[in-house]
C-alpha cells in the first residue's frame, strides 16, 4: 500500500501579481507619480463625496442668503467662520461650490474621454485593419478636423447646439451637450494613435493565425488586436481627461458651458472674473488654483505613464 502525497500550489491573486509587477515597482520608486496620484485621489474622493462633506448645498436656494454675498474667507477681516473660503456674488459658499463644481468637471471629463475613446477606437481599428480606401477616407476626415483647433471646433458645435435647441434646452441638458461637444472635437487623437498600433500589430503571426482559423474581422480586431494597443490608449486617456476638463472650463468661461445654477470650476472662474477688481478675488482665485492643480497632477500622471510604457526613455 503506497501513500500518495498531494501538494497544492498557491495560485497568486491578481493583487499579488500586481504588487510584483514592474508597473507597481516603478510607481513606488517615482515620488512625483505617487504624490500626483495621491492628490488626484483626494480630489476625486472629495468630489464624489461632496453631498456628504460639503458644509452647504449650493443647489438648495432656501439655504442661500443674498446678504451673505461676497463675504471674504473666514481668516480675513469681515469673514464668517461658516464660510471657510468666502462666498460668491449670490451668497453661495465657495468651498461647497468648488466641491460640487469639481464633481461636475470630473464627470464631464471622464464621460467626454469615454466618448472620444469609443469613436477613436472604432475609426482607428477600422482604418488600420482594413486599409485601402477606408483608411484613406477616415484619416483624411481626421486630418480635416485636426486642421482646426479643438477649442474652435468645440465653440462652433456648442454655438450650433445652442442656436438649434435654444438656451433653455441647452441649459437643461448642458452636461450631456458638453460631453458630446468635447468628445466629438477630440476623437482624432485616439483614431490616429490606434491606427498606428493596428498597422504594426496586424502583421504579426497571431493575427495571421486568427485569419487562418476563420475568425471574422470584428473578432480579430476587438478580441486580439485591441488588447495589444491598450498601453498608448491608457497614456492618451490620462492626458485627454485633463484636456477635457480644461475645454469645459474654457467653454464655461466663454458662456457656452454650464449654466450659472450648475457651477463647474470653469463657470466659477468666469463668474468671479467680473468681481476681481471689486476686491472679491477669492471667487476666482480658489477655483482657479483647484483647476490648475487638478490638471497639473493629471498631466504628471500621464507623463509618467508615457515614460513607463516606453522603456527606451524611462530612467526609473
From TrEMBL:
Predominant cellular place of this UniProt entry's protein: membrane
GO biological process, one term: transmembrane transport
Domain ABC transmembrane type-1 residues, every copy: 102-302
Superkingdom: Bacteria
UniProt keyword annotation of Transport present: yes
Family annotation (InterPro entries): BP-dependent_transpt_permease (IPR050366), MetI-like (IPR000515), MetI-like_sf (IPR035906), OppC_N (IPR025966)
Keywords tagged on the record: Cell membrane, Membrane, Transmembrane, Transmembrane helix, Transport
Membrane topology: Multi-pass membrane protein
Family note: Belongs to the binding-protein-dependent transport system permease family.
Protein name, entry field: ABC transporter permease
Source organism (scientific name): Vibrio gelatinilyticus
Species classification: Bacteria, Pseudomonadati, Pseudomonadota, Gammaproteobacteria, Vibrionales
